[in-house]
Amino acid sequence: MAVAIEDKPGGARTGGRGGVGGKEEVREGASGAVPASRRTRRVRMTGKERREQLLEIGRMLFAERGFEGTSVEEIAHKAGVSKPVVYEHFGGKEGLYAVVVDREMRMLLDMVTGALTGGHPRELLEQAAFALLDYIERSTDGFRILVRDSPVAQSTGTFASLISDIATQVEDILGLEFEQRGFEPKLASMYAQALVGMVALTGQWWLDVRRPRKAEVAAHLVNLAWNGLSGLEPKPRLIGHRKA
What we know:
Tetracycline Repressor, domain 2
């Protein structure tokens, strides 16, 4: 017969016969054999693996239904564990949500700041635009979570605060350019917010439509930011190495 397995803190498990070192055991009947039709194979998970599984399930549900529409019961059910296991790992739904949001915010911030490798200022704009669009493409669920209003924003931060963090990175670059061109360096902060905000809001729109293709969206974003409405190029081009 199959035996119920329950997660314990640190990856330990109870149930079975001689469960040592966090391994799952299958209890046998009196005859020492279990009919093949009645055997139940369960994936053996350490505490770390179970935590990652819960995070992935929570991330999927939060993206699909939002924070309010997701319950601990459903997270536990999809993971094949009891509700106390979720509480043991995260203290509740809020704790799980906070970890998911923190991971996504760090991933996006790292991708944007890591993409700003230098070169012509116009190429820097291209790099920032591509970084955000790359993140949306690779982590669609994560971006959906970030752009939603969070009921636990005090602990997770908000999308606006993330945009502000990215703008701070861009501000340093703009400040140097402003000084070299004789502009007022103090205005770099405002321009950084405007540029990053424009790209972020366009990213929210592109999240669902996915048209035109990514490189074309990046080219048009840079076209507006670099040339302004009065000098828009009819067919904007990319000057950097990224073409897709």
